[in-house]
Amino acid sequence: MIGDFVLSNHPIKDEERFGSSLDKAKSYAEVWKIVKETAVYALGKRRDGMMLFLDDLPLQLGAYYPIGTNNIVLNRALVEIVEANMTSKPTVNALTYNLLLHEYLHALGEMSETNVRKEVAAVAEKSFGKTHMATIVAKKSPWILLKDLPLGPMYTPRRVIQIVHDFEKSGKYIV
């Protein structure tokens, strides 16, 4: 059992459950729960007590993990641009999943960008199968979602960094 997922002895059923849950996720906390469950499922690794912050970062940067913290900072402007230009919530969730999983793997101790990219693709493929959007984004790069968007020079006013409350319900930190 992983979180609320009771794993079967049939990987296709697990892929369908993970995929359906990600496609239907309505919040960062729901996507995060799937990130953690798939990391345990594919890698046997877990870390509790993480916090999520939203900040307006350069568009080339999807998210980052400040080493030695329990924080992930997600690029709010990037996610908002994808949300505004994609009609598919599952596609936005696939992007968010990939960005959060990437930083979570750093938080789990893997610092090599090359290794983390490979692990993100491996976790996605094992958890969702080869044809799910999360796997496609992981294998090609999250930036494929931006390739057809008219992103010339943009000015986005800097907003205050925002903490995502109720991101992780581990009971270890109170925010």
Task: Walk me through this protein's architecture.
The chain has a four-stranded mixed β-sheet. The chain is built from six helices and four strands; from the N terminus they run ααβββααααβ. It has helices at 11-24, 28-43, 76-85, 89-107, 113-128, 133-140, and strands spanning 51-55, 63-64, 71-75, 162-163. α2 crosses α4 and α5 (113-128) runs antiparallel to α6 (133-140). The protein is globular, with a radius of gyration of 15 Å. The model has no long low-confidence stretch (mean pLDDT 90). The chain has one domain (11-163). It is an alpha+beta fold. β2 and β3 form a beta hairpin.
> Which parts are unreliable, with pLDDT below 50 for 5 consecutive residues or more?
none
**Largest beta sheet: strand ordering:** 2-3-1-4
Main structural class: alpha+beta
- Biggest beta-sheet profile: 4 strands, mixed
How do the SSEs run, as a string of H and E?
HHEEEHHHHE
Number of spatially distinct domains: 1
What portion of residues is helical?
40-55%
Report the strand count: 4
What's this entry about, in short?
The chain has 175 residues and is α+β, with helices and mostly antiparallel strands. The protein contains 6 helices and 4 strands.
Q: What descriptors fit this protein?
A:
globular, alpha+beta, 175 residues, 4 strands, four-stranded mixed sheet, single chain, 6 helices
Please write out the topology.
Layout: H1 11-24, H2 28-43, E1 51-55, E2 63-64, E3 71-75, H3 76-85, H4 89-107, H5 113-128, H6 133-140, E4 162-163
Parallel strand pairs: 1-3
Antiparallel strand pairs: 1-4, 2-3
Helix pairs in contact: 2-4, 2-5, 4-5, 4-6, 5-6
